[in-house]
Amino acid sequence: MKSADGTITSRIEVHAYSCLLSEATGSVIETDEMAPEWFPIDAPPLPKMWADDEHWLPHVLSGMDVVGAFLFKDASTILSKRVEVLPPRRLEVDEQRSRRLCVDHLVYGVPGDLESAIDAFEALTGVRPAVGGVHKGLGTRNALVALGGPDDGSTGGQFGYFEILALDPAQQPERLWMAMDSVMARGEPRLVTWAADRSRAPGLESTSLEASIEAARQLGYDPGEVQHFARATADGATLKWKLAYRHYEESTLPVDGLVPFLIEWDPKSREAGMIPSSTAPRGIELLSLRAEAADPKAAAEALGAVGIDAADLLGDASAGGGTKVATRSGTGRGTGGTLYGR
């Protein structure tokens, strides 16, 4: 986040790495180009890829984690490549930390119209977000993409979903939420904040949202009042959930948005497989969520009040990047570098 004098006070980054694990001979590609050339998945230039193994194979053999990304012009020409060497077990540790965070969804605000944001996301990742619903009285509408599911090795709602949030032109609300005022004022999209479902934390499965709020207040942090939401699904059923938040203007975001708002889905909606993490389009998997805070002490105290170990979110962000997202696309597309962040 940029302060009034232009300095960066907090930062969250989202990184994406090419990954198509369902194909034994899948291509690995990286691009920051506006119009990338994608190599056919059924004919990847494997000889050229393996010719560069001296850049990464020694690291693998020595026990390091390696993330490699390549962009090919043709079977004999590599336009760009990047090999990131991480400490041993870094990817595994990041995944374990992300599971403990109980991420329900990431909120990404865009200043333009929702349809353009959907098109841009699909062009970048090969996955097209589905239009979700309207937040009546709050001035927004959204589009959604799941962040992991049973067909990519994770467990359904394990990592929630990615929410693209845009203004709803049909509404004239008295007050916007999720810092959309600052998103519109700056004219730049950004990762605003995230939501946590603490009822998914080990040992807290029977803990209600209200109980989590009371526990946080006892520790000096107020997550906000409970608000009830509902919307009709395409098949005529009703999806219900409730939130505890005070994420309105940018100035009200708890610790610059690093502290999540709390969510609890109606048990019947979850059991029926109606929640977005189960119904939204797949192809993206959340690997890790990492952040840096301008005031680590304040962030740690607020996170701890809502049951989150600050080390799981605010660890050594410089060592592994920020938030990481892995794309898995049946089209053979992949992306590299920063996907979304602030």
Automatic annotation (TrEMBL):
The protein's name is Glyoxalase bleomycin resistance dioxygenase superfamily protein
Supply the alphabetized keyword list.
Dioxygenase, Oxidoreductase
What ranges does the record give for the region Disordered, renumbered to this chain?
319-342
Q: Say which domain of life the source belongs to.
A: Eukaryota
> Which GO MF terms are attached to this record?
dioxygenase activity
Bias (Gly residues): 331-342
Recorded hits in InterPro entries, A to Z, give: Glyas_Bleomycin-R_OHBP_Dase, Glyoxalase-like_dom
Q: Where is the Glyoxalase-like domain?
A: 103-304
